[in-house]
Amino acid sequence: MLNSYPTCLPLRPGALFSDIRYPLSSVFHLVASGALLYLAVSRLEMNQNAAALVTGALITPISFLVVRTLGTPERR
Description:
mainly alpha, single chain
């Protein structure tokens, strides 16, 4: 019964996206870093450790900006 209170509240506008923003950012970060890591190791023939560092340094700010841009409400 204690956990049922928040689920009984009516949905507010934009609640769905605010609730799934964190999982979406995690999925985007995982897919983008995996793809870039694959490209760096297989195509560019980088060392695995160096490719992981470069990938993390590139993808982290990009994923932050993507989620921040998608998460801001449209102003009228």
